[in-house]
Design brief:
539 residues; mainly alpha; two-stranded antiparallel ribbon; globular
Length: 539
């Protein structure tokens, strides 16, 4: 675009005053094209949104200090780089990673010396820009727990118990003696941050997460893909088959060796009924799969209402809910829902990658378990909190597995990017937030079910009244917790990731709330912490 045209467009849209325009381009004659009203309004709308987002402060770049505190980098993510014979990273390789992060130069990333073949996952996405919502570098996060803290010790205790209980049906957690021991131990740890009690074991704390069955209805009920109904029966792993539970296997995979064991699957597809099943669902899902499926279930909850499609589920602020003349579709209808649940998923991943690679670089539980092994084997001395070293969870793991390594549900172990926050969690937080803004949270869901203990059938469940909002919140936590059941993330990765995703979705909706011509009150929903959120047009 020519200089005079660019200035004219900005002036016409109200982005630059005549004085500002002259200052920017003092030698250009005041030639101003006349914009049609629609074009001027569209440009002003975009410019106003951009100006608001540009005023956001940059996120804090503080980390928990582990990287600087431990010269051997035991508190940092190093998988895929070359390691020593006790699993400590070779420092030049890590320094090359830090150099590439500091320069943001693609050529420097290509110079990072890898180990034995597996590649790091998309570190450069940490520097990507976006054209709607907040810039990825403006979303702050709380600091993750430090390597030697009681907090991370409690998180590892929880993970060892989850590994031990992977094959226990969710319906039996309340009566399982091992689960009762786990709940009691976690409740007694000063660093444990989750809800306490056997009924709340491995659950989230957002509204609805503690009500009804462990698993969200949106991971169980039939999904209608257009005219094709699909039962949610999935491929899962064989009971009792775990990975990276011998030291040679664990050690080689730290340096990026592809898995040399063959993954063992159950030959029968099943409804998700235990932690291993849930871990496998989030092993092979695509980014927003669970939330797309949830949207389809909600939209089809009353299929007989053909003339008033999904009218019962719409948020009370939806302008078409009470309309006598129109139904929503492109806006405030099914097409709107499908679009937004996908769009926010990728928006949320970008600040997540920024925090993963640029700020925190948090060690994965898989590597932490190797440090516990090294301590007990006398190969090294690391400052691991006594709450973990003296725990019943660790003792049980050593008795069952023969060592202190954290058994993994995935043959390759964790992916090759840092732990904090969990990518599944930020997607869950963002997608759930827009779904709660578009649907009526307090509406009851129909046809509640729970899986049989063998996962072959669904059983009607009438124990509690379940709501759309509560089951969406439960789904939001089930998805990242599935990665914890696999052994590749901590609870704090999930909790902080959900909050980050929620913040991304709110910024996205703040940008978009003024794009509609319908008269409506804005988007209203309940945040994960239970507070009411309102995003009104004109603000």
């Amino acid at each position: 675009m020519a200089l005079h045209s660019r200035r004219g467009f900005l002036q016409a849209a109200g982005a630059l005053s005549a004085v500002d325009a002259a200052a920017v381009e003092p030698n250009v004659p005041n030639l101003r094209p006349v914009l049609p009203p629609r074009a001027a309004a569209a440009l002003n709308l975009r410019d106003t949104a951009a100006a608001k987002e540009s005023a956001r402060p940059e996120a804090s770049t503080a980390n928990n200090g582990d990287e600087a505190l431990y010269p051997n980098l035991i508190g940092s993510f190093t998988k895929g780089l070359l390691h020593s014979q006790i699993g400590e990273v070779q420092l030049p390789a890590y320094q090359a990673l830090l150099h590439a992060v500091s320069t943001q130069n693609h050529a420097d990333f290509e110079k990072i010396p890898l180990g034995y073949g597996r590649k790091l996952v998309n570190a450069e996405s940490a520097f990507t820009y976006d054209l709607e919502g907040g810039d990825p570098h403006t979303f702050s996060m709380p600091l993750p727990p430090t390597f030697n803290s009681a907090w991370v010790a409690a998180e590892m205790v929880e993970l060892y118990w989850q590994a031990a209980l992977r094959d226990t049906p969710f319906s039996r957690l309340a009566t399982s003696p091992m689960a009762q021991t786990a709940a009691a131990e976690l409740a007694g740890l000063s660093g444990y941050q989750g809800p306490k009690g056997i009924a709340n074991l491995f659950r989230g704390s957002a509204p609805g997460c503690l009500v009804g069955p462990y698993l969200s209805q949106y991971l169980l009920q039939t999904v209608n893909f257009g005219s094709t109904p699909r039962e949610q029966m999935y491929r899962t792993g064989m009971p009792g088959v775990d990975y990276l539970n011998t030291y040679p296997e664990w050690l080689q995979l730290q340096s990026g060796l592809p898995p040399y064991r063959t993954e063992v699957f159950d030959t029968t597809f099943r409804y998700i009924r235990n932690g291993r099943d849930l871990a496998q669902f989030v092993h092979y899902d695509y980014t927003y799969q669970a939330f797309l499926q949830a949207a389809l279930i909600i939209l089809n909850q009353y299929p007989e209402s053909v003339l008033d499609f999904n009218v019962y589920q719409l948020n009370h602020t939806n302008p078409y809910k009470a309309s006598r003349i129109q139904t929503g579709f492109t806006t405030f209808g099914a097409a709107h829902v499908m679009d937004w649940v996908a769009r926010v998923a990728n928006l949320a991943l970008k600040p997540a990658c920024y925090h993963k690679w640029v700020i925190h670089r948090r060690v994965r539980p898989e590597a932490y378990g190797g440090c516990v092994y090294n301590n007990l084997a006398g190969l090294a001395t690391y400052p691991i909190h006594k709450d973990l070293m003296n725990s019943k969870a660790l003792a049980n793991n050593i008795q069952n597995s023969g060592n202190a390594l954290l058994p993994q549900a995935y043959v390759e172990g964790c992916p090759l990017h840092p732990s904090y926050p969990a990518g599944h969690a930020v997607i869950a937080g963002a997608c759930t937030t827009v779904l709660k803004a578009l649907f009526q949270e307090t509406d009851l869901i129909s046809g509640a079910v729970t899986p049989s203990e063998d996962g072959l059938t669904l059983i009607p469940d009438t124990t509690d009244a379940l709501t759309i909002g509560g089951e969406l919140n439960k789904l939001a936590f089930n998805i990242p917790m599935g990665r914890d059941w696999a052994g590749i993330h901590y609870r704090s990765d999930a909790v902080a990731g959900l909050q980050l995703g929620e913040a991304v979705a709110i910024a996205f909706m703040q940008d978009n709330v003024n794009t509609f011509t319908e008269t409506f009150a804005g988007f209203q929903f309940t945040a994960f912490d239970g507070t009411a959120v309102s995003i009104a047009p004109g603000k």
